[in-house]
Design goal:
It is built from 13 helices and 17 strands. With 368 residues, the protein is α/β, with parallel strands linked by helices. It folds into two domains: 127 residues, Arc Repressor Mutant, subunit A, CATH 1.10.10; 214 residues, Dna Topoisomerase Vi A Subunit, Chain: A, domain 2. The two termini are 21 Å apart.
Length: 368
């Protein structure tokens, strides 16, 4: 799974003009297929393979990327005919979106072509195939996913002409838009970004106004991060030069969520360069923190067999071979313990804001 020397991988283009993308869609899909039919050939498309086997870890860049391997999806093939038909149909819908200069949610696309799909997972995968085939980001195609992220803190944002002050939105925060690349950063007073895995811990920190005390921007993806939240965090780091720290539960799933923000995901490996914040730091909650901060035993949870299996899987990922990560994994496995960030509330309700985060930041106690 590690990148080999001189191995090519998929790198998507920056935003492409809509008219040029329409021409690209027409020429590379519809006109090409029409030409093949006229020549009495077997119509086919060349799609970048997106199987787990072609995902690679570039150790030098510390990123999960997709090898550039094309596979033929042809019409006169019983294994491929269904996907070929789906790809052409969805490409037609996308071309219409581009011509009308409008956007559609992933769910909209599924219902628009529901007669050829059994589930939305099928249509989502076809859309990702088309984005990879065109060499552009999915949003460039006019297709967006539901965004669930929220932001609070010392930053002002302009969204479609509206000025939003994320420090003056009560305890609710600003809902990150799916069209996050169209947002403009106007002004900010924060010194770093703190990404929180879960909404409950996020709310605790917002109500404690830690963003004001620590001069930070709080962001949550409410669990596994959506594309818009990951892109928003990446832009904060890239454009405002704000360091990024991540706070997740002390369990295998928390470690993987943090890794997705930092290195990208296996599923969207073709979109990694745009979404991954490579130098983000994992602040906690680390297994070693449970003793260091004297989290009582009754606030710790017993790992399930599924947890242990997942820990075994991620322990073998090459991007987790770092000594510090392995030490934390070993400690978790030996004790068969996990804990939610809110376990720190067993000390006192505001312990997370008053003690844990300030001390971790002061001691620079994080995993790179």
């Amino acid at each position: 799974m590690k990148k080999k020397e001189n191995e090519e991988y998929i790198i998507l283009a920056e935003k492409i003009e809509r008219e040029k993308l329409i021409d690209k869609m027409l020429n590379e899909i519809f006109l090409r297929i029409l030409s093949q039919i006229r020549k009495r050939q077997n119509p086919f498309l060349e799609i970048p393979a997106r199987k787990k086997e072609v995902v690679v870890y570039d150790e030098e860049k510390d990123l999960i990327l997709l090898k550039k391997i094309l596979m033929k999806r042809d019409f006169f093939n019983m294994k491929n005919v269904r996907k070929f038909t789906q790809t052409v149909a969805v490409s037609s819908t996308i071309t219409e979106l581009l011509r009308r200069n409008i956007h559609a949610q992933l769910r909209d696309i599924f219902y628009n072509r529901a007669y050829i799909f059994e589930t939305q997972n099928e249509s989502d995968a076809i859309i990702e195939d088309i984005a990879a085939m065109m060499g552009v980001y999915r949003e460039n195609l006019g297709v967006i996913a539901s965004a669930k992220g929220v932001c609070v803190g010392e930053i002002k944002i302009r969204d479609k002409g509206d000025l939003i002050d994320c420090s003056r939105l009560g305890t609710g925060g600003w809902s990150i838009t799916p069209l996050v690349d169209e947002v403009e950063f106007v002004d900010y007073g924060a010194e770093y970004v703190l990404v929180i895995e879960k909404d409950a811990a996020f709310f605790r920190l917002v109500e404690d106004k830690i963003w004001k005390k620590q001069k930070c921007i709080l962001v949550t993806g409410k669990g596994q991060a959506d594309v818009a939240t990951r892109r928003f965090v990446k832009r904060l780091r890239e454009e405002l030069k704000l360091p990024v720290y991540i706070l997740v539960d002390s369990d295998p799933y928390g470690f993987y969520i943090a890794s997705v923000y930092k290195r990208g995901s296996i599923q969207l490996s073709f979109d990694t360069p745009r979404l991954a914040t490579q130098d983000a730091k994992l602040l906690g909650l680390l297994p070693s923190d449970l003793d260091k901060y004297k989290v009582p035993k009754y606030a710790r949870l017993k790992m399930t067999e599924a947890d242990i299996k997942r820990l075994s899987e991620i322990s073998n990922y090459p991007w987790f071979k770092n000594k510090r990560y392995q030490e934390e994994f070993q400690l978790m496995l030996e004790r068969k313990e996990k804990a939610e960030v809110q376990a720190l509330c067993s000390k006192n309700i505001t312990y997370l804001s008053d003690v844990y985060i300030p001390k971790k930041m002061e001691e620079r106690d994080w995993l790179s």
